[in-house]
Amino acid sequence: MSAQNAFYAQSGGVTAVINASACGVIETARQHSDRIANVYAGRNGIIGALTEDLIDTNQESAENIAALRHTPSGAFGSCRYKLKSLEANQREYERLIEVFKAHDIGYFFYNGGGDSADTCYKVSQLSEKMGYPVQAIHVPKTVDNDLPITDNCPGFGSVAKYIATSTLEASFDVRSMSATSTKLFVLEVMGRHAGWIAAAGALVEDQGIPVITLFPEVEFDQEKFLAAVRAKVERHGYCTVCVSEGCHWPDGRFLAEQGTRDAFGHAQLGGAAPVVANMVKEAFGYKFHWAVADYLQRAARHLASKSDVEQAYALGKAAVEFALDGQNAIMPTVVRKSSAPYVWEIGKAPLAEVANVEKFMPKDFISEDGYGITDKCREYLYPLISGEDYPPFENGLPKYVTLNNAGVARKLGPFEL
Amino acid sequence: MSAQNAFYAQSGGVTAVINASACGVIETARQHSDRIANVYAGRNGIIGALTEDLIDTNQESAENIAALRHTPSGAFGSCRYKLKSLEANQREYERLIEVFKAHDIGYFFYNGGGDSADTCYKVSQLSEKMGYPVQAIHVPKTVDNDLPITDNCPGFGSVAKYIATSTLEASFDVRSMSATSTKLFVLEVMGRHAGWIAAAGALVEDQGIPVITLFPEVEFDQEKFLAAVRAKVERHGYCTVCVSEGCHWPDGRFLAEQGTRDAFGHAQLGGAAPVVANMVKEAFGYKFHWAVADYLQRAARHLASKSDVEQAYALGKAAVEFALDGQNAIMPTVVRKSSAPYVWEIGKAPLAEVANVEKFMPKDFISEDGYGITDKCREYLYPLISGEDYPPFENGLPKYVTLNNAGVARKLGPFEL
């Protein structure tokens, strides 16, 4: 069997460790150059495949590829672009096959979240439905930690570590100031539908910090919330609130919505923190500060979780190994064997069971009052933020790599998206 | 000469390294226990002195005091409370002397910014004006970097490192997303009147990032700003904006003001980022993300600058040594001998020349178009963010110390603030 090429692309919101998965894919493929001649990366995700805008990763030095392991963001560019069904847009699938054929692509590695798992699943069906043999493997990635079956998703552990650390640090700060100044600190974190990231903020309760966590899974009750804040301030002198961007009123309205939508049609959020802070100020007059971490949290490679980096790399590596083993339409997963000590191994899940399924926080992970987490949740979270994996620094700043991203010569005509 | 006690207090907004100064003060005092019997820390700053709420630091273990070096925030509590002049509130000064006498306090170490230098200066005059011999030394601290004479202020270097790193990481993120999604990222940073912190964001231009920095020193010009953003997006596909909370219109109005004021009467700011982001969206329709770092930036001990930590400690140590040398009414300073290699030493400045003087960015530190920094500014900034000084971690989180803060038995009656 002669060597074929592989296609790799990054999809959706990027993370601190998605490039570690890219590193795992490319380094492993290079070890099997008898089977995989080259990894062509899609420039800006699947769009790179459709427009035949392919990046020749063989032209990158081993040193540059290794540096992906400690570089946040998507080194080849990502995109928010979801393929329609084969019936609704056959033209796109025909184009994909045309590009795959032109560049002898037999392996398709797609690195993304739930929407991307759906795209990957559709590609995995091309062999059967359109007669083009391609093996499609999905590499999980999402800070939202909402993919099913896998114990957790690469990207989440590092955000969780960043949010827990930031909540701890800012809480120490407000504690110092509370006698004469700030009594309330509100940190807004990502998480449209699932409160996994917000739950990380709740971990600092273990260090004696009075923190109230607002999850998307729990309908917002203003009166109850205000009473909870007041009780914490009266007891501790201050209070920290960790609010998920997806926190919403009983009627479904988000605490703050900017009114715009992203390319997938999801509401673009931001601004729950000032809403919450002003609400408390109006009720009790407490001086407040608020922060919105936004991209800072998912890009914070400088504070990545070591276990997260290791898993991101291992899942990229496993994707290639599964492909070489002849597998199709699967996603490598993290399987937890033990929390203390933390032991995990690589498993796999059929894409049919992954695509478009969202995993929420289990009910027994959220405390009875709805404002904190249970011991079961703690046991789940701590291993995911364990260990540090600092990037190299130069002149006081992290030394991240920007690849050359040389294009592969085009063989086909243009394609209108 | 028999040993006397020292008073130490933290004032104003706390930082990632103010406790490193406390560590320097206490460890050095302990080395001279023949001259300084105990360091009494004010609980919540100068208020602790006025209310005779003193903390007995001799009861803290050497290990706990050493851990202050890597713990952010103010370990003894800080306050925003400015002493009036001797003429306007003689009662407060008489009370201070009463407390100093009751607890045999001969040294006064005050750790703060410009307002606090003023308080420290007033205390230093008590000997001459009210016949009580006390030596008052000010230990500089402010993330705003706006104290005069000293080359820089402890706390600033670490914020600068955090903001430059975060700007770099978030810019890598938006660069990945810009083909189909976010094209504009706005990060709001601290700095009411001086743009030192915003200038740190501008450093990432050296890594090819298209960044526009909005300084408080430069009046905001909407038309010119929008044109600059558009030019960057058209050339690079995306643009990062680093906006100082103190950025303002020609008439002096801040881009965003919450309408509340802190205890010093300064406007409490926050929210320039969404204003700027929406302004660009309305003009060009670019999808945006914005973040407000707020307390996260000044509490981020996990990413402290090594030179900042070393200087914070050295200035605390120097304060004690100056006091033992019989000095009064001074502030130890950082004197830069060379930028490359970075060489600095400890100097001193008379408090009369420090109190209430604000140091702005020099005109020749800001680029001609007002949106970036000059090479002179780069040369100034890089040494301040140099080196890493990670705290120890445990269970995935930084291991910060919370002191016991045992009180000193009161000898006097109560005092109404």
Automatic annotation (TrEMBL), chains A, B:
Involved pathway(s): Carbohydrate degradation; glycolysis; D-glyceraldehyde 3-phosphate and glycerone phosphate from D-glucose: step 3/4
UniProt main location, coarse: cytoplasm
Sites where the protein binds substrate: 142-144, 190-192, 245, 295-298
EC number of this enzyme: 2.7.1.90
GO cellular component annotations of the record: cytoplasm
Residues carrying the site annotation Important for catalytic activity: 141
Enzyme class (EC, first level): transferase
Cofactor: Mg(2+)
Active site residues according to the UniProt entry: 144 (proton acceptor)
Site (Important for catalytic activity and substrate specificity): 115
GO MF annotation list: 6-phosphofructokinase activity; diphosphate-fructose-6-phosphate 1-phosphotransferase activity; metal ion binding
UniProt GO BP: fructose 6-phosphate metabolic process
Pfam families in alphabetical order: PFK (PF00365)
Subcellular localization(s) per the UniProt record: Cytoplasm
Protein name from the UniProt record: Pyrophosphate--fructose 6-phosphate 1-phosphotransferase
Organism: Thiohalocapsa marina
